[in-house]
Amino acid sequence: MRSGAPPALAFDVYGTLGDVAQMAGELGDRRDLGPxxxxxxxxxxxxxxxxxxxxxxxxxxxxTAYALDVAIGECGLRLSGADRRALMRSVELLEVxxxxxxxxxxxxxxxxxxxxxSNGSPRMLDALLGRAGIxxxxxxxxxxxxxxxFKPAPAVYxxxxxxxxxxxxxxxxxxxxxxxxxxxxAAGMRVAKIERQPSFRYPFxxxxxxxxxxxxxxxxxxxxxPEGGQTR
Length: 232
Hints:
By secondary structure, this protein is of the alpha/beta class. It has two domains: 8-19 and 95-224, Rossmann fold (3-Layer(aba) Sandwich), CATH 3.40.50; 20-92, Orthogonal Bundle (DNA polymerase, domain 1), CATH 1.10.150. The chain is built from eight helices and six strands, in the order βααααβαβαβαββα. The chain has helices at 34-53, 60-75, 81-92, 100-109, 122-132, 154-163, 178-187, 215-224, and strands at residues 8-11, 114-118, 140-143, 171-175, 190-194, 210-212. Strand 2, helix 5 (122-132) and strand 3 (140-143) form a beta-alpha-beta unit. It starts with 7 loop residues before the first strand and ends in an 8-residue tail after the last helix. Residues 228-232 have low confidence and may be disordered.
């Protein structure tokens, strides 16, 4: 790492910046959808992994649609076409977590290069980041579309480092997802794991370099301490 230069920070979106607990969107007051949302998110990830192992790629929007249909079937629900479309829209309209704006502003002001590294398709990411008003904070928005394989494939993290013009060890992944943290660490990135709620770690995976309870705590750690290669 270049002496005195802060590392680049690559932020996951779904579950880290965007609150996936809100995937019910405008239908969030329907109690019967509680189990569906949990299954939908699980199948969203499992289908992305399955496609990767099969060496087949379809963008995250299609993966999300497949996952919703599987979850609806597993729950035995019948949803109208309008309700299904509303659920799909909700993924693009996710609210960001309350700690996002302040943390990104602090890190940006401190000189950390900020990027997004996400499974989301470019259209999905543009919609979410634009609506949240945080798109301009990021020098790069990197989608796995550019690689044709989903996280946690090593190619994703190596591609991100190349896009950012950095050695992979000079990039931190910031993620609240255990699978993502494990994949980035195995690929050679440093990892900041966000645990807003108690989370697990895979016993075969390397430990994150930093574990914090919020993005604001991460900003304070990186700006005030030596972990990010910057002292103030």
